[in-house]
Amino acid sequence: MPRLTEPRISPLQAEEWDAETTELLSGTAFDDPINIFRTLANHPKLMKRWMVFANHVLFKNTLDERQRELAILRVGWLCRSEYEWAQHVVIARNAGISDGEIERVTAGPDADGWTDEERAILAAADELHADAFVSDSTWADLSRHLSTQQLMDLVFTVGQYHVVSMALNSFGVQLDDGLTGFPD
Question: Is 2's pLDDT higher than 60?
């Protein structure tokens, strides 16, 4: 699958933002926004509404950071979204996921070393990616470890990052400075 080496939609600099985008991103951690936000600045109304859902998934999710980041990394890998992968490698490390575990995500749920819960989370990401459905056996495995709200958040987390990966890949969002893409 070819990847774009140049953006199809150019990321905007702060001086190019409209008032709505300036209000949305100024005075926050996004004062020096990463390329995804600078690209979405081309469509302020979409960005504003998407950010409500994205903020739930990333910051108010009932999954713990480790569970969430394993699922997100797996989606980024499966979708071949190098930007998504690179951004969430940093977040995963901050959540205590080791470099070895991050690399193991690329091998999937059947790799040695995962707990039963982690294996089920990765399997759910694989199944949702392939079939838009979590199998009964994986659902049963997940249900032994996750609450109803966590099960719902897992499906929405995988879905959110699937959509984001599609957008990043299709728009040609380039890696931000200092990020490393996929492992060799």
Answer: no
Mean pLDDT value across residues 113-124: 98
Could you tell me which CATH number the domain at 61-171 has?
A: 1.20.1290.10
pTM above 0.85, yes or no: yes
Q: Where are the domains of the chain?
A: 14-52, 61-171
Q: Give the H/E segment covering residue 51.
A: helix 44-55
pLDDT tens digits for range 98-117? 999 999 999 999 999 999 99
How far is it, in rounded angstroms, from Cα 25 to Cα 68?
24
Write down the pLDDT at residue 107: 98
C-alpha pair distances (Å), 135 with each of 125, 131, 139? 11, 9, 6
Q: Which amino acid is at 158?
A: V
H-state helical runs in the chain: 19-25, 35-40, 44-55, 65-78, 82-94, 99-105, 116-131, 136-143, 148-171
Pair of tokens at residue 82: 């190098």
Contact 86, 179 (CB under 8 A): yes
**Token pair of 5 as six digits:** 């080496």
Burial 29-48 (b: 16+ CB within 10 A, else e): eeeebbbbbbbbbbebeebe
**What letter represents residue 64's amino acid?**
D
**How far apart are the C-alpha atoms of 83 and 77, rounded to whole Å?**
10
